[in-house]
Design goal:
The structure is a single chain. The chain has 3 domains: 53 residues; 249 residues, 3-Layer(aba) Sandwich (Rossmann fold), CATH 3.40.50.1820; 91 residues, no CATH class. Helix content is 42%, strand content 17%. A 9-stranded mixed beta sheet has the order 1-2-3-5-4-6-7-8-9, sandwiched between helices. α11 links the parallel β8 and β9. α4 packs across α5, α6 packs across α7 and α7 packs across α8. It is globular, with a radius of gyration of 24 Å.
Length: 416
């Protein structure tokens, strides 16, 4: 590139006959484009080839016996270097200890990425990422796929800036464990313990932490922020940022239950809640809130991933529209209590909060997010609210990045 630029600007250029100059320039530019395409294609092919092999070998990595000894949260059980890491970075799949909402020691999985090259003397700030809904089954974990990094929105920007990035799968995904879907404390612990796991590796991770999540991941990040000071006091949380977060769970389920996406999300949630809370909570079973058809369908839906099995989810969910619930989970106990306990924001976020919301979002409705922001400001939190016009649920996190990254620097959440 530098050589081409030099040639085109050099004093030798007039030696090319004028009638041939455009032909020569076109030839040079065509060669440059071909080279760029070849390099880009090689990079993509390298990552896909490596990711395909890693996906094939992944089941052995996640295998557990159920007899592993308890260990402090964040303790790493095993790691595996990933050759599919984005160019300019290094990455590992990790299996580590965490804690669920009932206080049990559990194993969960995720990935850790760091920029290539030595870390600064003070180490690198950690970004702990909470991914949006992908499903609840083990094979729906982001770290299992051909590209275990594809859902980490802003990954390239964070690595280029110098952050260490960690991404938890959440309990029950990847490694076997209790369900965690929209169970705030479990998800939040998983994000905090992923950061702890990174500090156990030789990747230059400091004790400085930023939380960042989208949709379900926003829910996880908010819970992690609420509990960080008591659950992981050795970590220095600087900021929490969320895009279209799941906040008012009762409102979320009621507003979306009339379509396939709402039934899918509710199925994942009811499956998790009945599994985790059912054994100890009277009436927290599927039959107590769902129609017979709904209760029968939930286990099958919980085995399907949102990506790659969307057609199957639609096939099951479509006949259930209007025929799923027998009661209102927002008013019928124990569901009302469980949803309230797993709704974030009952206390002010202890660090600066960035919230992005697409104004065309039909899944997480803007009114719900606005109500959450208003509540946080009333409680005394420092909040920046980025309302993004003509933006739906899927694009909001990416469109928030140009404002998010400078904001992190401004509140002390920079990479160093």
């Amino acid at each position: 590139m530098r050589y081409i630029a030099t040639v085109l600007k050099s004093g030798d250029q007039p030696q090319v006959p004028r009638r041939h100059s455009r032909t020569v320039l076109a030839t040079v530019l065509a060669a440059l484009v071909a080279l760029a395409i070849a390099v880009f294609t090689f990079t993509i092919d390298r990552r896909v080839d490596a990711g395909t092999v890693e996906e094939w070998a992944a089941p052995a990595f996640y295998k557990t016996t159920g007899t592993e000894k308890d260990a402090p949260p964040g303790t790493v059980v095993r790691t595996e270097s990933l050759r599919s890491a984005p160019t300019g970075s290094k990455a590992w799949r990790v299996l580590y200890h965490s804690t669920d909402v009932l206080g049990h020691d559990i194993l969960t999985s995720g990935v850790v990425l760091t920029p290539d090259g030595p870390a600064p003397e003070a180490g690198r700030t950690i970004v702990s990422w909470g991914h949006p809904t992908t499903g609840v089954a083990q094979r729906c974990a982001p770290s299992v796929g051909v590209d275990p990094f594809i859902l980490i929105e802003g990954l390239g920007d964070f690595l280029k800036a110098g952050y260490v990035v960690v991404a938890a799968d959440y309990s029950g995904m990847g490694a076997a464990g209790p369900d965690s879907y929209l169970i705030g404390e479990t998800e939040g612990n998983n994000l905090l313990d992923a950061a702890r796991a990174a500090r156990h590796l030789d990747v230059g991770a400091s004790d400085r932490l930023v939380l960042w999540g989208h949709s379900q991941g926003g829910h996880a990040a908010l819970f992690a922020a609420q509990t960080a000071a008591t659950y992981a006091p050795e970590l220095k949380l600087s900021a929490v940022a969320v895009a279209a977060p799941a906040t008012d769970l009762a409102a979320l389920m009621n507003s979306d239950i009339g379509d396939v996406s709402g039934i899918t999300i509710s199925s994942y949630a009811f499956a998790a809640y009945s599994s985790v809370y059912g054994p100890s909570t009277p009436d927290a079973t599927l039959d107590d809130i769902l129609t017979p058809a709904g209760a029968a369908a939930v286990p099958d839906m919980a085995e399907l991933c949102l990506f790659g099995q969307n057609k199957q989810l639609h096939t099951i969910a479509t006949p259930l529209i209007g025929k799923f619930l027998t009661g209102d989970p927002a008013t019928a106990d124990p569901w009302k209590t469980l949803l309230t306990e797993n709704t974030p924001g009952s206390v002010a976020m202890p660090v600066p909060l960035f919230v992005a919301q697409g104004l065309s979002d039909t899944l997480v409705h803007p009114d719900s997010t606005t109500d959450f922001v208003t509540q946080q400001k009333t409680l005394g939190a420092s909040v920046v609210y980025d309302e993004i016009p003509a933006t739906g649920h899927g694009e909001v996190a990416l469109r928030a990045l140009p404002r998010l990254l400078p904001w992190l620097e401004s509140v002390g959440g920079g990479p160093r």
